[in-house]
Write a structure and sequence with these properties.
Layout (H helix, E strand, L loop, with lengths): L1 H17 L2 H28 L20 E11 L6 E12 L11 H17 L7 H11 L4 E2 L5 E11 L2 H38 L3 H11 L4 H6 L1 H11 L29 H12 L5 H14 L3 H10 L5 H8 L9 H19 L1
Antiparallel strand pairs: 1-2, 2-4, 3-4
Helix pairs in contact: 1-2, 6-8, 10-11, 10-12
């Protein structure tokens, strides 16, 4: 509006200054009439639209908090997923009356609240495994932590301090069953591993002599000579694994037995020859004569004087008794030989006493 008045004033001033007298007088009259009409309209609008104070809305005060009553339940059996394994449920039940009037009916609100909580808890526990009591306790604490109306519509109930346990006997049984299941899994694994190993040896490695030879060659890092020497043994193993007759000419040597696993002949070598080979393997050096004296003495004590004399002749023991006594004196330090001989003599005496 101020902008319009400004523009109109400028135009009116220009007409008065430059326009003929008749024109600007007409323009002044029109302007005065327009301003008067505008002022009248403004006055009329202000008279019809008076200021109205905002209405104050009064909100009622909040209702007083509902007083809740408590009822404790202890060790109530609730069914689990497994038959004969019950959860033991304990909790504090909080309940409050609903708005319905109880004037015409006598009720036990505490009993209704406890029954409502137990129903809600049972709907969960009967679908849970008994071995998960701690987890079920947390689940029930969350589900029962909200207030809900009971089926009769008289009370609202919730629960706190929820505890879920198992009896000691049931817990021990479950622990034993869990241990048996774990052991069974391990046993099944071992059995399958053993079966797989048997299949590998029987159906692949020992399928025939050729497969056994190749397998043994790989096992011995390409030691061809050793594999060649063991061909007879491998052929025998392959035939035995497949329930076949051992092929002719399949010979092998064992460190404990002779060829083809047979016990070597007792008369194949004399005792002195066997002792000589044994002494060469031991390589006793300076203690060789002393050890030979001890062997001859032990053989004589065990009732083989001929063999003892043969040992003494073969190894050049011209005076075995004096040499043995000198070597076996208490002052000797040849690896504790004197105590060893004393133990052997005692053993010989005990053997004679038992025979007599």
């Amino acid at each position: 509006m101020i902008y319009a008045f400004t523009v109109g004033g400028i135009l009116l001033a220009g007409l008065i200054a430059f326009a003929p007298r008749g024109i600007w007088l007409t323009a002044v009259g029109v302007t005065v009439v327009a301003v008067a009409v505008l002022l009248f309209r403004l006055w009329e609008w202000n008279g019809t639209h008076d200021y109205v104070e905002p209405e104050v809305v009064h909100t009622p005060p909040p209702p007083p908090p509902i007083e809740r009553c408590e009822q404790r339940v202890e060790q109530v059996p609730l069914p689990s997923q497994e038959e004969d394994y019950d959860f033991l449920f304990s909790a504090t039940v909080l309940w409050s009356p609903l708005k319905q009037s109880w004037e015409s009916t006598l009720v036990n609100p505490a009993a209704l609240a406890v029954d409502a909580i137990l129903r809600r808890a049972r709907a969960i526990t009967e679908r849970r495994e008994p071995g998960r009591a701690a987890l079920v306790a947390h689940e029930l604490a969350g589900v029962l932590g909200t207030t809900q109306d009971d089926a009769s519509g008289y009370v609202q109930a919730m629960a706190k301090s929820v505890q879920v346990t198992l009896s000691t006997q049931d817990q021990e049984r479950l622990d034993k069953l869990a241990m048996v299941r774990k052991d069974r899994v391990v046993w099944e694994h071992d059995r399958k591993y053993e079966q797989s190993k048997r299949d590998y040896l029987g159906e692949d490695v020992l399928k025939d002599t050729g497969s056994a030879v190749v397998w043994w060659l790989v096992k011995n890092d390409d030691h061809v000579e050793k594999t060649v020497n063991d061909i007879g043994l491998l052929a025998t193993l392959s035939s035995a694994a497949n329930n076949k007759e051992i092929p002719q000419g399949a010979t092998y040597a064992s460190p404990l037995f002779g060829h083809n696993g047979e016990e070597p002949a007792m008369n194949s070598a004399s005792p002195t020859d066997s002792l000589a080979a044994f002494l060469r393997a031991l390589d006793l050096r300076e203690q060789r004569d002393l050890f030979t004296h001890q062997i001859a003495h032990l053989v004589r004590n065990y009732g083989q004087p001929d063999v003892a004399e043969e040992i003494e002749r073969k190894f050049g023991l011209t005076d075995p008794t004096s040499a043995y006594d000198a070597d076996m004196s208490p002052d000797t330090n040849a690896s504790g030989s004197a105590p060893f001989q004393e133990d052997q003599d005692n053993h010989w005496d005990d053997g004679h006493d038992e025979q007599n």
